[in-house]
From TrEMBL, chain A:
<feature type="transmembrane region" description="Helical">
    <location>
        <begin position="24"/>
        <end position="45"/>
    </location>
</feature>
<dbReference type="InterPro" id="IPR025966">
    <property type="entry name" value="OppC_N"/>
</dbReference>
<dbReference type="InterPro" id="IPR035906">
    <property type="entry name" value="MetI-like_sf"/>
</dbReference>
<feature type="transmembrane region" description="Helical">
    <location>
        <begin position="247"/>
        <end position="269"/>
    </location>
</feature>
<dbReference type="Pfam" id="PF12911">
    <property type="entry name" value="OppC_N"/>
</dbReference>
<keyword id="KW-0812">Transmembrane</keyword>
<feature type="transmembrane region" description="Helical">
    <location>
        <begin position="148"/>
        <end position="169"/>
    </location>
</feature>
UniProtKB/TrEMBL annotation, chain B:
<dbReference type="InterPro" id="IPR003439">
    <property type="entry name" value="ABC_transporter-like_ATP-bd"/>
</dbReference>
<dbReference type="GO" id="GO:0016887">
    <property type="term" value="F:ATP hydrolysis activity"/>
</dbReference>
<dbReference type="InterPro" id="IPR027417">
    <property type="entry name" value="P-loop_NTPase"/>
</dbReference>
<dbReference type="Pfam" id="PF08352">
    <property type="entry name" value="oligo_HPY"/>
</dbReference>
<keyword id="KW-0067">ATP-binding</keyword>
<dbReference type="InterPro" id="IPR003593">
    <property type="entry name" value="AAA+_ATPase"/>
</dbReference>
<dbReference type="InterPro" id="IPR017871">
    <property type="entry name" value="ABC_transporter-like_CS"/>
</dbReference>
Automatic annotation (TrEMBL), chain D:
<dbReference type="Pfam" id="PF00528">
    <property type="entry name" value="BPD_transp_1"/>
</dbReference>
<feature type="transmembrane region" description="Helical">
    <location>
        <begin position="66"/>
        <end position="84"/>
    </location>
</feature>
<dbReference type="GO" id="GO:0055085">
    <property type="term" value="P:transmembrane transport"/>
</dbReference>
<dbReference type="InterPro" id="IPR035906">
    <property type="entry name" value="MetI-like_sf"/>
</dbReference>
<comment type="similarity">
    <text>Belongs to the binding-protein-dependent transport system permease family.</text>
</comment>
<keyword id="KW-0472">Membrane</keyword>
<dbReference type="GO" id="GO:0005886">
    <property type="term" value="C:plasma membrane"/>
</dbReference>
Amino acid sequence: MSVHAQHSKTSGSVWHFLRRDPRFWAGAVAVAIVVVIAVAGPLLAPHDPAAFVGKLYLRPSATSWLGTDVLGRDVLSRLLVGGRLFLIQGLTAATLGVLAGVVLGILLGVTRGTTAAVLLFCSDSVMVIPQILLVLLILAAFGSAPLTLTVAVALAQVAYTARVIFAATGRVTTEDYYRAARAVGMGTGSLVLREVLPNVAPAVLVEYGVRLSISFVALASLSYLGFGSGDVDWGAMIHENQGGIALQPWAVVAPVLVLAAFLLGMNLLRDGLARALAARSAR
Amino acid sequence: MTAQVHGLSIGVGGGGPLIVADLELELAAGEVVGVAGETGSGKTTLGLALLGHLGPGLQRRAGQVVSAGLELLGPSAVSGTQLRSARGRTIAYVPQDPAGALAPHLRLESAFAELHRAHRMEFSPQRRAELFERVGLPSDDAFARRYPHELSGGQQQRVAIALAFCLKPALVVMDEPTTGLDVTTKLLIADLARELAAAEQAAVVFISHDLPLLFRVAQRLVVMHEGRVVETGTPTAILEHAEHPYTQRLLAAWRLGGSPAPAADGTRQVLSVRGLSAGYGDVQILHEVDLSLGVGECLAVVGESGSGKTTTARAISGLHAEHSGRILLYGEPLAAEVGRRDRAQRRAIQYVFQNPWGSLNPRRRVGASVAITAQYLRGLSRAAAEELAVQTLLDVGLRADHAQAMPQHLSGGQRQRAALARALAAGPEVLVCDEVTSSLDASVQADIVALLKRVQAERGLSMVFITHDLALAGELAHRVAVLKDGRLLETGPTAEVLAHPKDPYTAELVRAARLAS
Amino acid sequence: SAGPAATESSSPAAPTVLRVGVVSLSDADALDPAKATTTGGYILSRQLFDTLTEYGPDGAWKPQLAASVTPGTTADKWTVTLNAAKWSDGKPVTAADVVATVKRWFAKKLPPAGSLPFIDPAKVTATDDKTVEFSLKYPTVTFPEALTSPTMAIVPADFDPAKPIGSGPFVLASNDPGVQLAFTANTGYFGGAPGASELEVKSFPDSAAAASALTAGQIDVDASLDPSLVDTVKTAPGFQIFDYATSGSLTWVMNTKKKPFDDPVVRQALRLAVDRQQLIDQVYNGFGKLGNDVFNPFDPMYNSTLAQRTYDPEGAKKLLTDAGYTLPVKVELVGTNNQPTSERQNQALVQQAKAAGFAIDYKFVDSATFYGDAYGTYPLSLSYWGFLGIFDQAAFTITKTAPYNSSHWTNAEFDKLYSQAITTVDDTKRKELVAGMQKIEYDSGAYIVPLFLSTVVGLSDKVTGAQAYPNSDGAFGYNFRILGLKG
Amino acid sequence: MSTRLVIRRVLTGVAMLITVSVLVFAATQALPGDIARTILGQNATAEQLARLRGELGLDLPVWQQYLHWVGGLLSGDLGTSLASGTPVAELLRVRVLNSATVVLIALVITLPLGLLLGLAAARRGPLDVGISAAVQTILSLPEFVVGIVLVVLFGGGLLRWLPPTSPLDPRQLAWNQPRLLILPIATMVLIALPHLVEATKTLLREELATDYVRWARLSGLGDVRLLTGYALPNVLGPVAQVAGVTVNYLLGGVVAVESVFAFPGIGSELVAAVGARDIVVVQVIAIGIATVLLITFLIADLIGLLTNPKLRRSR
Ligand SMILES: Nc1ncnc2c1ncn2[C@@H]1O[C@H](COP(=O)(O)OP(=O)(O)OP(=O)(O)O)[C@@H](O)[C@H]1O
Ligand SMILES: Nc1ncnc2c1ncn2[C@@H]1O[C@H](COP(=O)(O)OP(=O)(O)OP(=O)(O)O)[C@@H](O)[C@H]1O
Ligand SMILES: [Mg+2]
Ligand SMILES: [Mg+2]
Ligand code: NI
């Protein structure tokens, strides 16, 4: 038969693979820088981000390194301040979405049956609608307060996560070790906690990475489209300064760069992690 | 000489470990050379090297391969077009899994046409028909217009062999061409290889880890171990004076034989299965199966792949509730679903799974996996359960420190022992062993069988031993039940069934088992 | 005083297409002028129809479809005579059409009916083909001004909004709601043919898009150039800026029914907390005219003797602490995108008022939410107002009976002066009364009129005929008939 | 056998559409306040409200409202915009055409280009590295950023080659205004392309690693033949499915791209409608897009089914 798995001693931890992955480290550095900007930014900001430091759309100068924006506020300071809420929102949305999706996916995967099939079919149907559309539909129905926004983005992800985790759970429940656990009489709760969860954890981790990226992309886009939190954030900066591109490109280019660095970094980080997890589970 | 391998060493990357070391081999036309060896011993690597092919990341370190007068590997090896035109034409390859190796979008005749086209040769349907006839396939055109998925596994393998011999190659490498086939087809293929080698005057390299099969097919045998040839000679010579300890172990495993320990009390029924029918969704797999198992007895359930052996085992263990019929433990009917059985019942029947790679939770230490059974089924405290787990691991021949290991750090045989320990930790009365040795190497297989025999005797266990290997059944079981297509064909004391099979199918199985030995 | 200055380019040469970009057309743009509430609706009304009177380039009212509008001996009798105008189907515009239009407003309870409480529809009569007599419920000196709104356009007696036949300078060629309006010139327009033979009004979601379309040559006129983008247009070769101050304003409304604005001291303090000059400089790139919390500097009755209020954060703090408030005073501000600069103006207020002891919590909501059920309950919000004479402004937004008084501010003295003034025909006497009204507002009112907005228009150098319409909403009061194209 | 699969697949599609429509319909139920009042405004009289409610079926039980709504959609009555009172069909006519033009042109460019680049990237080498880096970068960026970057580069930021906004003239067909389409279409292509390239590459690589390709290689077949004669025919089905998903990205991308370029299509209309809480318009657009996507997926799956060699029969 064909389970000639290698009896290799170097089963290795995830770190073992990550340590030698330059793309992972590039991503990690990019994300770390942006996170530091977002967290410590308000302390580092040279000016009050709401204060007027000069005329509007001034080019970069010694007092304002990245120039001023449409209201004559310091672009650099706004850039530094604009990440905190954005990161919190994205983190919250992804966490809520993944939590809900994981719970749903595992429940469906463990219970199966008709209810599960119907729910799964519904969630598959939801996935037909492009995500941004789904979020906009929710916003149209419930209005666009910052909290609604976060919840809408989270909701739009649930079906996807549930699908992935359902599949991962399905793989576990058809394994013999799961059967063995059933045979000793473990209840559903224990089965989920002790057999399913530890084994879908890598899938959850990768999925969380995916959902984080997608939440950030969605929030930035919504903010750009004018459904943002109303506070300073990068998507909104691009939106409000887009008209001045020819006068003061930095007011647009700077947030675009930060956003791009962050999202690209997230992707590299996540792909690196996924590669390492895959390499480890390949044994 | 058709082909020569001289001092060949192949390693991983620039400085990685050697996979094939210092290998010498000579092949003559019309000769079948068998290559044996446990998994990972370098058989495939050698086979592919004969075609001048190295897997990704592999490097030739020393030596050369000359096939049909062409240096395929070596300091002045041919490459490019020359190499390409040698492959398929002068040296052909028969892959292990024909289902995956035949291009799904090509009709059989197109596959032949493609091969000819690649070598700029005229394709003649007569040659194809002749070859099909020779390998025992229908030679008509309608058959040739089929797609691979319209063939059975054995037929696919024969098509692959026909393709390999099509351009009259000087050398054919067959890499485990019989894996996944049932015993009868296996023997047919082996005979075919031998006939074709003689008829087409080709040298054939027949790779397999099935020692009995090689004894039957090969004129010369090469035993590999850790990338080196440890033994070479005619089958008889090897049988008589095997020198290398590894070969000796292999032979010992094969000759093991023996008879089961006497049953404690064959008359009292531990377990009986009455009119068991089961299926998956709309498909019915088992039809009215009746089995009974006496105390201390070992019942072998024998049948080919897909006959419903695992399904039966799962139904008994309460893991396949989609069934009708009754399963009785000491005359008490058992609930279909394991969750509905009480603790004593769950504890009485323990299941050891077919595949050791999936039966232990990869995120839990081996010791904990074993301890859980004791905790749940014997109501032991955690500490007591862990202590018992260690004890049981020792019992099945593992070390105490294995309790702290993760399953992925154990070999297949070790895992199977751990899985057995998990079952034993419950203190069962009936052990259901589902092909517990089929995914293990021959030498490991023998150890496990010996272990099972021992624990059965020591603990007075009753056992349902599921296998597709009648020979193994003879060694362990007091009684045999033969399954085919989900129906019970016959059942009776092992010796009797082996000596006087009633059903023609059983007779066929018995004959195949004899032939193999 | 007939038609506008369009006569200069009446030569019917090759077709000239004038392309105007606006922010923004909407699906709600009504073809029925009386229902117009949007930019597109006003544009449609101005091109397809005429109002009896309009505010001219100098900001004073003048007759438009009317040849004259004259009061009787008292301000409750008005006689309107009509110009020799024709509907686009060729029939003449008659006094009967005017009467029918007015009656339609009241019969269907259309918005103009609400704005003209002094008209008694039963007492509007056509005395001959070209003359209409209005007998008002009470004397109203502002009668001609009251008829200037584009919603009060005159329509044919058998008007069908689906096929809008009007007397205006253009006829509708096509209408793609929210995307584009296209018109062809009405060459027989009584005021002289428009300067361009075709007019296209294109919608842009924001001013930035319109500005880049202008410099990319996709439009000739950017009718609502965001002041912040003036330099993009100015630095592009072949384009110019045309700007003028108007009576329009983005006004902060303090709700006197909500704490802390029920206290006049807090209202005065917040008025001191606004740096008006800075708003003009930062938000409006220097375009705009200082406001003094009372309306319409272009009205001849405007009280220009009130001292200009300046930024005085210390003064504001003192007022608050003297009144016993502990600083900072917390205030909720609700805003939406009702004008492109609203958001920025609100953000600037938050910043400026901080120094004056106010902690403003700014909540941005979408416009549907803003104008939804909660409208009128916000403690502090920003409204777009203006282009009304002082009396109309008072009638709509200040007096006790004003329909749009979302400040809920009332003052009996003010109302008394208002009703005296509106019936006073004598100009100097009336001016005195108005000065009194505005003083009350200045001292205790609930509006902050920080500045008057400039209309800033981006133009291709080819566009001719631009004129300022300070008392009218939109570029040139949406009178695109005055524009021509050279070359 | 095959027809049964096809019928099954079509029925699944219909069931999905019904599910989606129920979900989209549910959005109305979530709307706060009274729809009739929202349409008619604060000054509406009680009779007016009652009449409109009757017309819209707001007095009926929820499931009847749903049937009423679906019946309307099926008979071409898309309802009336809450914000403007205009029939939604009229409102969307031009915009649907505009968006369809952009999406179709982008699709026609993306499909062959994606296959080609995927094919190029499937063979390891510097080309693959370059393509993969570009693909990864674009994949991680929001759609609007891709559009903005193009504007910065070509639409006035650095170069003034192309108009930075695309105010189409609705009286002409969209493709008669090519200069205005270039940047939106380029953005759409850039958004959709990476998914297709990546998928084609992965599929081809998987195919090239299969046993049958390896065996064909060991039987002396050349690289080119392996790619075109063996791998390609077997990836067409899966690639068709990926192409279906590409339409998903294009339709989703429409929202951001049209907003960046002020392009009058359904995407920008959607944003406006959400801002105005005009749920009726939003629902029609959502259902419309879902329907188009379901049909696309259906076609893609059918192509997948038909090209699946496992379902071929010899005869
Ligand atoms: N491309 C490669 N790179 C690195 N290691 C390899 C590669 N190919 C094979 N190996 C290693 O070389 C050893 C021998 O492999 P090979 O496939 O030749 O074994 P085999 O005898 O055919 O085994 P089996 O019975 O399982 O088919 C194994 O340990 C395998 O992991
Ligand atoms: N989960 C399942 N769903 C549907 N069919 C199944 C499932 N598991 C097994 N089968 C089918 O049931 C039949 C019997 O399977 P079973 O596993 O019992 O065979 P087996 O005798 O154990 O074979 P092997 O020797 O290969 O292990 C096979 O045809 C198999 O395809
Ligand atoms: Mg091998
Ligand atoms: Mg089995
Ligand atoms: Ni094997």
